[in-house]
Amino acid sequence: MSEITPNSDGPTEDRAEVASFDPSKLKHVETEEKNPLPTAAMLSEEMRPDRAEVASFDPSKLKHVQTEEKNPLPTAAMLSEEMRPDRAEVASFDPSKLKHVQTEE
Q: d(Cα 39, Cα 42) in Å, to the nearest integer?
């Protein structure tokens, strides 16, 4: 059994077994990456949109549609008319209907 000795970094084991280890007894292993990172060429190919359908598109199969604008934008004349204040009420105002008010300060 290995002896545990205290250290400033925490307990460590006796390294006598590590010093006597023979690396020639190890077997050679080939590593295989199961999920390799994509290369720059693979990324650029994926980023490019697929335009095969656009090249083979037949516009003669489209139906004609008549568009109708349901909410048209106002013309300049309509805007200027809305901006002008309505003064019809001021022209027909009767000041004789006003009551006198005394203010206190």
A: 5
Amino acid at 27: K
Q: Which residue has the tokens 């205290």?
A: 6
Q: Rounded to whole angstroms, how far apart are CA atoms 81 and 77?
A: 6
The predicted-structure confidence for 48-65, as pLDDT tens digits, reads as follows: 888 888 888 899 999 999
AA identity, residue 104: E
Strand positions, DSSP E, 1-105: 4-5, 12-13
Contacts for 26 with CB less than 8 Å, ≥ 6 apart? none
Q: Is the pTM of this model over 0.85?
A: no
Closest by CA to 14, choosing from 31, 1, 25, is: 1
In the structure encoding, which two tokens stand for residue 10, read together?
Answer: 């925490």
* Closest to 12 measured CA to CA, from 2, 22, 21: 2
Tell me the average pLDDT across 5-25.
73
